[in-house]
């Protein structure tokens, strides 16, 4: 079996492009942001679970700050477009949720769980040129992902 570190996206790598459906059913590609904005790409296990809800709400509460530093937030899980619609509406999420059914994008990034049972919670900060500037992985410290992302984006300015 191949080690997951062989395919893991790391700092300094060009972020792999992808196209996934949003909670509104529109298609979004990472390349859409190239030259425009930095991207906070966060992978999380599942809509409506306690840690994921806390993380999404923390991103929501800091969303204007992310916009102020020139970044867009994209949340990714394997939940369906319909599940994302409900999750986004229930928690008034102002950012895009992407449906990665089957987890192909998650696998491509190497955002797997250290525990092996549930999908990993990993955040990638991608600059305007499409280069990964920071990777933060913590299954349990969901809300720390927001602090790590903002710290990296502010330092890059």
From TrEMBL:
InterPro entries: AhpC/TSA, Peroxiredoxin_AhpC-typ, Peroxiredoxin_BCP/PrxQ, Thioredoxin-like_sf, Thioredoxin_domain. Its EC number is 1.11.1.24. GO terms for biological process: cell redox homeostasis; cellular response to oxidative stress. Keywords: Antioxidant, Disulfide bond, Oxidoreductase, Peroxidase, Redox-active center, Thylakoid, Transit peptide. It catalyses: a hydroperoxide + [thioredoxin]-dithiol = an alcohol + [thioredoxin]-disulfide + H2O. GO terms for cellular component: cytoplasm; thylakoid. Residues 1-23 are annotated as: Disordered. One of its GO terms (molecular function) is thioredoxin peroxidase activity. Residues 9-157 form the Thioredoxin domain. The keyword Ligase does not apply. Gene3D superfamilies: Glutaredoxin. The active site is at residue 52. It is found in: Thylakoid. Pfam families: AhpC-TSA. Monomer. Belongs to the peroxiredoxin family. BCP/PrxQ subfamily. Thiol-specific peroxidase that catalyzes the reduction of hydrogen peroxide and organic hydroperoxides to water and alcohols, respectively. Plays a role in cell protection against oxidative stress by detoxifying peroxides and as sensor of hydrogen peroxide-mediated signaling events. This is thioredoxin-dependent peroxiredoxin.
């Amino acid at each position: 079996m191949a080690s997951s570190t062989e395919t893991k996206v790391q700092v300094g790598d060009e972020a792999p492009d992808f196209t996934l459906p949003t909670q509104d059913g529109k298609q979004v590609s990472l390349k859409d942001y190239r030259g425009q904005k930095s991207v906070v790409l966060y992978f999380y296990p599942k809509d409506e679970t306690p840690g994921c809800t806390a993380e999404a709400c923390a991103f929501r509460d800091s969303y204007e700050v992310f916009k102020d530093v020139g970044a867009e937030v994209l949340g990714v899980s394997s939940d369906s477009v319909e599940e994302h619609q409900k999750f986004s509406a229930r928690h008034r999420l102002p950012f895009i949720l992407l449906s990665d059914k089957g987890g192909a994008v998650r696998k491509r990034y190497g955002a797997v769980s250290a525990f092996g049972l549930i999908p990993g919670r990993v955040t990638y900060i991608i600059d305007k040129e499409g280069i990964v500037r920071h990777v933060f992985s913590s299954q349990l410290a969901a809300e720390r992902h927001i602090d790590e992302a903002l710290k990296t984006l502010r330092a890059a300015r």
